[in-house]
C-alpha cells in the first residue's frame, strides 16, 4: 500500500512541479519580451524627438520673423512629415508662439514639467493630459541676434501603451494555456510511465517466503526498466539462497543437537531402569559428560560464527611467526597422525605477520584435523608457506585423498555442508559437525584475507592468503 501511496503522491507532485516550472520560465520569458520592447520603444521615441528638435534648431538659426517666416513654416512642415502623432511647440524668449502643431497645448506642460532640467540633462519626461500620455523633450537655442527660442516636442504614447497591454494579456494567456498543456502532458506521461511500474509493484507485492523462486519476466516492463528487473531478480536469487541456507542450517543444528540429547535421554532411562553400582553410575556420568562437552563445543562454535556474522570479532593483533606456529601445531597433531602413519611436511617460509594468534591457530588447527580425517594411511600432508609479495603471504595445506567434485568446492565453507552424507562423524573436534571450515573462513576474513579450495586426483588443497599487516 505504501508503494501505491508513494506512486499517487508522485503522480500529483510531479505535474504540479512541471506546471510551476513551465509558468515560471514563460513568465521570465514574457517579462524579458515586455522589457525589451519597452526599452526599444523608449529609444525609438527619444531618437525621434531628438532628431526633430535638432532639425528645428538648425532652421531656427536662420529664422527671421520679418524675412522668411513662410519659408520657416514650410521647412517645419517638411521636417514633421512622416512623424505620426508628433507635436511641436516653438516660442521665443518673450513667450510668443512661433509655431505649434494641432493637438495638445504643450504650453500646459510647462506648468507640470521642469523643462530647465530636461534641457540641461538632454532627457525626456512623461506628460499625461486628458487621458492621453506623451513623451516630452525640449531644447533652447540662441541665434546671432541674441534672440532665444525654446522648442518643445512631444510624441504620443497611447498606441505603445495599448500594444504593451495587449502583449501582456497575450503572454498571460499563453502562460495559462502552456501551464494547462504542461499539466495535462505531465499527467499523461506519468500515467504511461507508471503503468508498467504499477504492474511491477503488483508482481512484487505477491512475492513472499513461499514464492521466492518466482522471477519477474523482463517482458512486463519497457526496455529502460529491464536492468532494474534483472537487479531485482538477482536480489531474489540471493534472498532465496540465504533463506534456503537458513532453513538448512536450522534443520542441521536441530539434527546435531538431537543426537547428543537422544544419547543423554537413552542413557539416563537405562540407568533409571535398574539399580546400579557406584562405578556404573560414574561411567554413565562420564559418558554424559562427553555429550555435554560436544553440545557445549557446538554452542560455542555457533556463538563464534554469530559474532563473525555481526562483525563483532576483533582480533588481538600481535607479531606471529607462522613457520614456528605451524611447526608447534604439527607436533600437537602428531599423536593423532601417528594412528594412521601420516607425516607432516612443512615447506617454505614467509615474513612475520600481524594477527590474532588464538584465532589463526584455531583456523589452521581445524584444517589440519580435517586433513588428517580424510587422508589415507601412510600418506604425507604438505604445508607450504610462501611470500606472494611484500605485504601478502600464502599458506597451502594439501592432503592426498579422494577427489572432491568441483560442484562441492564453493560450498565447503558453508555451515553443516557435507560432500558425502554417508560419512560418519567421529572425534570431538568441531569440524566433525560441519562447522569447522565455516569457522576457518570467518577467521580468515576477519584478518582481511581469503580462502578457497582446490581438488584433483593427487590432493585436496586449502589455499589461505593473508596480509602481512592489517
Automatic annotation (TrEMBL):
GO cellular component term, pick one: plasma membrane
Membrane disposition: Multi-pass membrane protein
GO molecular function: ATP binding; phosphorelay sensor kinase activity
Regions annotated as coiled coil: none
EC number: 2.7.13.3
Keyword hit for Transferase: yes
Protein name in UniProt: Sensor protein
Species of origin: Gilliamella bombicola
Amino acid at each position: 500500500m505504501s508503494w501505491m501511496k508513494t506512486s499517487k503522491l508522485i503522480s500529483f507532485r510531479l505535474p504540479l512541479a512541471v506546471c510551476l516550472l513551465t509558468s515560471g520560465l514563460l513568465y521570465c520569458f514574457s517579462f524579458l519580451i515586455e522589457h525589451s520592447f519597452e526599452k526599444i520603444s523608449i529609444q525609438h521615441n527619444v531618437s525621434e524627438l531628438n532628431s526633430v528638435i535638432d532639425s528645428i534648431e538648425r532652421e531656427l538659426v536662420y529664422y527671421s520673423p520679418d524675412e522668411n517666416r513662410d519659408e520657416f513654416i514650410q521647412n517645419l512642415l517638411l521636417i514633421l512629415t512622416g512623424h505620426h502623432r508628433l507635436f511641436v511647440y516653438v516660442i521665443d524668449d518673450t513667450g510668443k508662439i512661433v509655431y505649434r502643431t494641432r493637438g495638445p497645448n504643450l504650453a500646459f506642460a510647462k506648468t507640470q514639467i521642469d523643462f530647465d532640467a530636461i534641457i540641461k540633462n538632454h532627457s525626456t519626461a512623461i506628460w499625461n493630459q486628458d487621458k492621453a500620455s506623451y513623451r516630452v523633450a525640449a531644447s533652447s537655442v540662441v541665434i546671432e541676434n541674441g534672440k532665444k527660442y525654446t522648442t518643445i516636442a512631444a510624441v504620443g504614447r497611447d498606441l505603445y501603451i495599448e500594444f504593451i497591454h495587449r502583449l501582456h494579456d497575450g503572454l498571460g494567456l499563453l502562460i495559462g494555456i502552456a501551464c494547462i498543456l504542461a499539466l495535462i502532458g505531465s499527467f499523461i506521461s506519468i500515467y504511461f510511465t507508471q503503468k508498467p511500474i504499477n504492474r511491477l509493484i503488483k508482481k512484487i507485492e505477491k512475492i513472499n517466503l513461499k514464492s521466492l523462486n518466482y522471477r519477474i519476466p523482463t517482458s512486463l516492463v519497457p526496455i529502460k526498466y529491464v536492468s532494474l528487473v534483472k537487479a531485482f531478480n538477482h536480489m531474489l536469487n540471493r534472498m532465496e539462497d540465504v533463506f534456503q541456507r537458513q532453513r538448512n542450517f536450522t534443520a542441521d543444528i536441530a539434527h546435531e543437537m538431537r543426537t547428543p540429547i537422544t544419547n543423554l535421554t537413552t542413557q539416563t532411562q537405562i540407568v533409571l531402569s535398574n539399580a546400579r553400582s557406584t562405578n556404573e553410575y560414574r561411567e554413565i556420568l562420564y559418558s554424559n559428560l562427553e555429550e555435554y562437552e560436544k553440545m557445549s563445543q557446538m554452542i560455542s562454535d555457533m556463538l563464534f560464527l554469530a559474532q563473525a556474522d555481526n562483525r563483532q570479532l576483533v582480533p588481538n593483533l600481535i607479531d606471529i611467526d607462522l613457520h614456528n606456529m605451524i611447526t608447534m601445531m604439527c607436533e600437537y597433531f602428531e599423536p593423532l597422525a601417528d594412528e594412521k602413519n601420516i607425516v607432516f611436511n612443512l615447506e617454505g617460509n614467509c615474513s612475520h605477520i600481524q594477527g590474532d594468534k588464538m584465532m589463526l591457530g584455531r583456523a589452521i588447527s581445524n584444517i589440519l584435523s580435517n586433513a588428517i580425517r580424510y587422508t589415507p594411511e601412510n600418506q604425507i600432508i604438505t604445508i607450504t608457506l610462501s611470500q606472494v609479495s611484500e605485504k601478502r603471504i600464502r599458506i597451502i595445506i594439501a592432503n592426498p585423498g579422494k577427489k572432491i567434485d568441483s560442484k562441492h568446492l564453493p560450498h565447503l565453507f558453508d555451515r553443516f555442508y557435507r560432500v558425502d552424507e554417508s560419512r560418519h562423524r567421529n572425534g570431538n573436534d568441531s569440524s566433525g559437525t560441519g562447522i569447522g571450515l565455516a569457522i576457518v573462513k570467518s577467521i580468515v576474513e576477519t584478518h582481511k584475507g581469503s580462502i578457497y579450495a582446490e581438488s584433483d586426483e593427487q590432493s585436496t588443497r586449502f589455499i589461505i592468503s593473508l596480509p602481512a599487516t592489517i
